[in-house]
């Protein structure tokens, strides 16, 4: 995965399907006529959980917030939230913004 300057995804030239995860073919129709696109960097928390015991490269990060967010492009993405003052500030429906892309984790978001 390359480190993008923004929230990068792919769009299928055949069916128009868009997804945040980078892929070599369209996850919807299987076409390899895909192109990279920059996506809206804002969204809302769809659901989340607090992970107290991480594993692998996430172990030292725990506790952390694992969230599914719905971006303003109407795409869902599993991500983690950074820069939280406390976990009570996290709630379903709260606005988030893309922060950066981590080599191992992928896109990381923060509260707006
Ligand atoms: Zn497609």
Automatic annotation (TrEMBL):
<protein>
    <recommendedName>
        <fullName>ChsH2 C-terminal OB-fold domain-containing protein</fullName>
    </recommendedName>
</protein>
<dbReference type="InterPro" id="IPR002878">
    <property type="entry name" value="ChsH2_C"/>
</dbReference>
<dbReference type="InterPro" id="IPR052513">
    <property type="entry name" value="Thioester_dehydratase-like"/>
</dbReference>
<feature type="domain" description="ChsH2 C-terminal OB-fold">
    <location>
        <begin position="37"/>
        <end position="97"/>
    </location>
</feature>
<dbReference type="Pfam" id="PF01796">
    <property type="entry name" value="OB_ChsH2_C"/>
</dbReference>
<dbReference type="InterPro" id="IPR012340">
    <property type="entry name" value="NA-bd_OB-fold"/>
</dbReference>
């Amino acid at each position: 995965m390359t480190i993008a300057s923004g929230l990068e995804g792919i769009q299928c030239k055949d069916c128009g399907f868009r997804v945040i995860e980078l892929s070599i073919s369209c996850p919807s129709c299987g076409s390899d006529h895909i192109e990279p696109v920059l996506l809206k960097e804002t969204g809302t928390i769809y659901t989340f959980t607090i992970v107290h015991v991480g594993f692998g490269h996430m172990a030292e990060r725990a506790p952390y917030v694992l969230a599914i967010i719905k971006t303003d492009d109407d795409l869902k993405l599993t991500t983690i939230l950074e820069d939280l003052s406390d976990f009570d500030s996290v709630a379903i429906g709260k606005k988030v913004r893309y922060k950066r892309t981590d080599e191992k984790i992928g896109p990381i978001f923060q509260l707006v």
